[in-house]
Specification:
alpha+beta; 3-stranded antiparallel beta sheet; EC 3.4.19.12; 2 domains; 186 residues; ubiquitinyl hydrolase 1; hydrolase; 20% strand
Length: 186
């Protein structure tokens, strides 16, 4: 406790494109301050949004608590370095590539075999998803997690998409394509 001598340090916010702002030491939840929200919104691309908080100590209090420190270099934690590396080499794709993968034909695993109704022998098949029609308003929900065994891993692939002029024609099945005649039977 500061024993009535005032604040031990001031918290300075500097992150994104936000101007330098000081947070109130009396605030019980300083990270919920509107200035933090504004700074996070102003963060540029290239990784998760983040802000930098700096503790500016009163000189006499700092020397009393930590001694006379000549070099004040604070090493970043390894997790910071890993995030920088991951987002520096971040893989990206286009929305068109996402649709190509979605509609790509896949070979089913042997344990997903289907039993032929004629010969009663399990057959390893293929599956292909197709878009037959599109609504007037198309809402696209992208997969955010990848399941590996019992663990879920968050996907960080950047998906580039057009804001105008999205052409979905290459991804909608045509009647003349293999499997397209099936639509006529429905």
């Amino acid at each position: 406790p500061s024993q009535g001598t005032g604040a031990l340090f001031r918290i300075r916010l500097a992150g994104g494109s936000a101007p330098c702002t000081y947070l109130s030491p009396q605030d019980p939840r300083p990270l919920c301050h509107p200035a933090i929200d504004r700074a996070l919104q102003l963060c540029g691309a290239g990784g998760p949004p983040h802000v930098r908080l700096t503790a500016e100590w009163d000189v006499s209090t700092k020397e009393r608590l930590f001694g006379s420190i000549q070099e004040e270099v604070v090493q970043d934690a390894e997790s910071v370095w890993q995030q920088q590396q991951a987002h520096g080499q971040q893989h990206s794709c286009t929305l068109d590539e996402c649709f190509q993968l979605y509609t790509k034909e896949e070979q089913l695993a042997p344990d997903d075999a289907w039993r032929c109704p004629h010969c009663k022998v399990p057959q390893q098949g293929t599956v292909k998803l197709s878009l037959w029609t599109l609504p007037d308003i198309l809402i696209i929900h992208l997969k955010r997690f990848r399941q590996v065994a019992e663990q879920r891993h968050k996907l960080t692939t950047l998906v580039r998409f057009p804001l105008r002029g999205l052409d979905m024609a290459p991804h909608v099945a045509q009647r003349g394509q293999p499997g397209g005649q099936l639509l006529g039977r429905w």
